[in-house]
Every structure is written in C-alpha cells, then in structure tokens.
Amino acid sequence: MGTIHRLLVANRGEIARRVFRTCRDLGIETVAVFSDADADAPHVAEAGQAVRLGGPRSYLDADAIVEAARAAGADAVHPGYGFLSENAAFARAVLGAGLVWVGPPPEAIAAMGDKIEAKALMAAAGVPVLPTYDLDDGDARPEPPLLVKASAGGGGRGMRIVRDAADLAGAVESARREALAAFGDGAVFAEPLLENARHVEVQVLADGHGTVWALGERECSVQRRHQKILEEAPSPAVTPELRRELCDAAVKAARAVGYVGAGTVEFLVGDGVVAFLEMNTRLQVEHPVTEYVYGVDLVRLQLEIAEGAPLPGLPPSPVGHAIEARLCAEDPADGWRPRTGVLHRFEVPGVDAEFRAAGTLRLDSGVTDGTLVGPHYDPMLAKVIAYAPTRAGAARRLAGALAAARLHGPATNRDLLVNVLRHPAFLAGETDTGFLDRHAAAVTAPRADADAVRLSALAAALARAAANRAAARVLGELPSGWRNVVSQPQRSAFAVPGESGERVEIAYLLTRDGLSAEGFDGVELVSAAPGEVVLSVDGVRRVFSVHACPDVTYVDSVLGPVRLTPLERLPEPVPRVEPGSLLAPMPGTVLRVDVEPGDRVAAGQPVVVLEAMKMEHQIVSPGAGVVTALDAVAGRQVEAGAVLAVIEEHADDIADDNTGTP
User: Fold this and answer.
1) % of the chain exceeding 70 in pLDDT
2) 80 CB-contact burial (10 Å; exposed 0-12 / middle 13-18 / buried 19+)
C-alpha cells in the first residue's frame, strides 16, 4: 500500500466519470481504457490518458487492462462495477503486477463470487439465507416457483423466473448464456422465488484495521427484468428494529470474509422473512443515495482505504432522503427492449451537482449531446438523484426534473420513471418487487395523450414555418404562407413512432386575425420561432420547445414529450418488406433460431433470439402461421430493421389459434 498518484479505471460510462471526479478533487491523475466502440465516449476525453483495449468485449480482457495500466504508468486500478469488478483472478493480476487494487482482497471476492458457496458461508456466520439448488446436480428437482440466478455478477443479468417445471431447462440455458456474455462465467443456481418481497441492501465499508461500517439501507424494489430502476435511502418500510437486524447481519457477512473496502449486502424482506441474497464486492450503481444521506464520498473512502488509512470508529448519522432514477435507452411499452441511435440533446434542468453529493439534484451521466448509443453495452444513459429532507420532497423534485428533461434521441424510460414517482402507491411506500407488474398500465402510459400530440404537432408545423421564413432571402418578415387573398391552408403531416403508425395532419392559415387551424378551436398563436412556439389553449398559455433534427422533430412541453417524424408531401419511394416479416428491433447478434422453414408457429411463439446490450431478446411470432422464409443465422450480426423471418398467416392457423386448438 502507498499513496496513489495515477489511477486507471477499468470501466466505462458514468462510473468511470464518477471515479475521475473524485480523483480530480484529490489531485490523482487518471487513465481511461476504451473499446473500439467507445473511442469517442465522454469518459475517454475526460481522463489524462486513455488506452485502447480492442473489440466491444475487451473490457473483460484482464491481461489487456493490466498491460494498459503498465503502459500508462498507473500505480492503482479501480474496477468500477460490472465487467471484471467481482473477478478474483483480475484482482490477483492487478496485485501481482505491483499495482494497488481499489477493492476488497481477492479471497473475499472469491468467497462471495460463487453465490452458492457464499450462501453456505453466510449461514455458518449466522446470516439468514434461502435454500439453494445446484442445477448441475442431475438428481436435484426443485419445485417452482424458482429464480434462476448467475453465480457470478449481478445487475439482473442471467436471472430467469420459472413457474413451470417444464420451463426450467430452457431458463437455465438462457441464463447461462447471458451470464457468460456479461461476466465471463456461465455458472447458475436456483432458489425459491419470494413473490412481492422487498429488495433491501446495506452499504458496508471496512478498512484494513478491523473497523466495519454499515451505512444504513437502500431499497431497490422497483425493478424490471430483475434490474433496478429506482433506488432510495432510507427504505420507507424499514423500522429501527429491522434496520439494526439488517445492519448487524451485513457486518457479520463482511467480517466472515475479511472484507476491506466498499461493498453491499443484499436481502429480501417480506412477510416476516429476512433472507440474504448476495454480497456485491464492489461499489453499487445506487451508491449516490447513501452518499447524500450520510454525507460521504464513497469513492474517496475507497481510495483512502486502499492507501491504508483507517476509518473513524463510528459512521456519520443519516439525514434526509434520497432517490435515484436510472435513465435508460429502452422502451417499457415494447417489452423493455433497448434502443440505439444518436443522442441529439441531453439536458436535465435544475442539476446543481455532477458525480458528487452536493445541492439537491445530482446527475451522473455516461453520455452528452451527440453520443452514439450503441448495442454493445448496458442501456443505462445516466442516473438522476434527488435529495430532500423528506421522501415526498425527494420524489417530487426528481419527478419534476425528469419531466422537464430534454432527451432527444433513442426512446427512454423517462415517462415510466415520472409516472412511478408520482403514483399514489409509490408515494405511500408500497414498493415491493411486484410494483411494476401491479401498476403496469398506469406507469407505462405516455404522459402526452392524443390531444397533447396534436398540439405538439401544430407547434412543430408552426416552428418549421418560422424556420423557413427566417431562412428566406426576401420578405422574411412576412408570415409563412401569407397571401393578400386567403388561399388554401398550409398543410403538414407527421408520423408518431409506435406500432400504431399514427399519422397527424395539420392544416392552418395565418391571417390578419391570427391563427386559424382546422380542428383546433380555442387555440391562438401567441408567438412562433424556430425553436419555441407559444400557444394559448382556451386562455391558458403553453410553451412548446421544438428541436428539429434532420429526420425527426422533438417537442417538449408541460403536456409531455412528443417525438414526431415529418412526412413529406411527395415522399421518396422506400423499399417494402413482405407482409408478415419479422424485423430486428435493434442491432445485435443472432444467438439462436428456434424454427425451420415450413414450420407452423403459434402467436407468441419464439422464432429468433437476439443478443444486444448484454441481454437476450426473444423475437416472437405476432400471430399463427407458417414460416415461409428464414434469413436469420445463429452467430450473424444484424442491423436494426433487417428481415429475420417471414410468417405467412393461414386461415386454418388463425382459427386454431383463436380456439386454443393445438
């Protein structure tokens, strides 16, 4: 151990930038690593030095990362989270190279890295655990409902719910593949599924001198696909007595493995049950909420512990409430499928701190304006964290900031986050792991309803007209389409993204008497500029911010964000696809093809499995029919919109599907 002068962060995105922020505060030089896909990523530009690793999976190349540290003259490595952060062999390689490892001892990582052995170790230490089923044991026949889990890593990767014994083998196979892709380890196991329990975790911090802190609990129960999307500290359901029980168990867990550094002990809590889930031997994505409530910088403490410094005897006391939202490039209404593309604009109003717990609204972002969101990594774009004296105040502040954010690019889960934060059940603290399932219809609905979409389309048309006039070489001061004698109205058309393919037609005139728009009674034009239109709707003025990109227009207002695709009056011909074509929803790799040409398929039957953004995505048949063409090949890369298969409907198949006849 010794003073750290130059630190390499073996990670990417917002966690790399988060560690760099503390390093700048401490005067520590920084080194970034990057894959070919991340050559232009923000974390690369922020580091003092940056070393190229190779292909998209090169963040899992331990030898290349150690060599990068040597080449850049680093004397320490911080693993971030994900990738190799919980890989004991990587920690040993770093230490073997004479570098400081900013993490727990490799022995502690190994003890907790195999979750099957970890649970046995915790049971011996007096920590309550659930039964564990070894899926490699041919004699084991666990009864559903079960949760299949990756033995290495976390973050929801390699997890599958099994409610029918017949589905177990397929779930295990799928979980193994996903775990191998995410963590380089395909080992999985199963445990009983506790329905609608709360997911509660305790932040621990231990030094090399025998002091272990338990910095209270975080609740992370609002999840999709076993991945957290909202986290908060403290939990609205944890009593002082339960908090002591959880913290005592977490300290026992840390001491049982000789833990040093920052880590998290996770529990399921519900119906009188407290059960150890796992210990994450690293910093967590949701660590900012603990930093706010306890007034600490966990990365700074990690670095100081790695240098050999002791912790004070007692941790600080908690104050206030913090809630974190994970903003992801994914569409909740389309099975949470991730989305890719250029992020044209990324603005969150009211942010008074980045990558540190100061003020009341914090942003930890891995992206900036112009970032290309690709298919290779987790779809999380940023974390937005709000702090207030009360839980209600933090929820209101966070919802308001997200609602007003300008997110122009791939679809995100922003509306869902706002809807959850404003939902009566969330505000009442009713936040177990079944929250999203119970309230799916309410929280996945777009905030902009049909009337808001039409008003936004009118604003987009008026803004485009204003932009045309501003660019006009003559008579630019005249309103667009102005005539001495009233003529035909100006017309614009927009497509609203989504399966419905909704088309919005706008027809309007700008006369001496003002705006006259068909179907917009009570709407008056106050002002129109290329980037902003103000409309009075039944006497209420509303401001519409308009951002026109080459192929899409984004309109933001208090009515909700709207994305519109302008339609040309005389569009260019476009290639047509055969009816019944199944298209790739995103770029990715074909993992498996489950049908053959000529096969009869039922509605909802899996046809192709794609891997994108570190997760598997099933492409299913929209209806009953016959596979008449199959272009997907296992192992092949495909682009978004590529034809994977063609399903031709037949009357007898449709009849069978409607009656449930096999």
Assistant:
1) 92
2) buried
Asked whether 134 and 140 are in contact (CB, 8 A), the reply is yes
Q: What is the pTM of this model?
A: 0.86
pLDDT of residue 657: 45
Shared domain check, 328 and 315: no
Dihedral sign (CA 169, 170, 173, 179): negative
Q: What is the largest CA-CA distance in the chain?
A: 90
* Interval 250-295: pLDDT, tens: 999 999 999 999 999 999 998 888 999 899 999 999 999 999 999 9
In this structure, the number of other CB atoms found within 10 A of the CB of residue 422 comes to 17
**SS3 assignment, position 363:** strand
Question: What does DSSP say about strands 6-9 and 76-78: parallel, antiparallel, or unpaired?
Answer: parallel
d(CA 284, CA 291): 12
Six token digits for residue 168: 């177990």
CATH number at residue 27: 3.40.50.20
DSSP per-residue codes, 577-643: --TTEEE-SSSEEEEEE---TT-EE-TT-EEEEEEETTEEEEEE-SSSEEEEEE---TT-EE-TT-E
d(C-alpha 87, C-alpha 80), whole Å: 12
Q: Which residue has the tokens 């992206």?
A: 367
51: in domain = yes
Phi and psi, residue 468, nearest 5°: -65, -40
Phi-psi region of 258 (alpha: psi -120 to 50; beta: other; left: phi over 0): left
- What is the predicted pLDDT for the residue at 662? 36
Specify whether the CB–CB gap between 205 and 213 falls below 8 A.
yes
Query: 198: which strand partners?
Result: 269
Q: Average pLDDT for residues 76-90, to the nearest whole number?
A: 96
d(CA 638, CA 392): 45
Q: Are residues 368 and 308 in the same domain?
A: no
Pairing of strands 380-388, 361-365: antiparallel
CA 3 to chain centroid = 35
Domain membership of residue 534 as a residue range = 450-567
517 bridge partner residues: 508
Q: Name residues whose C-beta falls within 8 Å of residue 545's C-beta, 6 or more positions apart in sequence.
A: 406, 531, 532, 555, 556, 557
CA 617 to chain centre: 15
The rounded distance, in Å, linking the Cα atoms of 200 and 570 is 57
The answer to whether position 553 is within a domain reads yes
Exposure string of 597-608, with b = 16+ CB inside 10 Å and e = fewer, is eebbbebebebb
Tally of CB atoms within 10 A around 473: 5
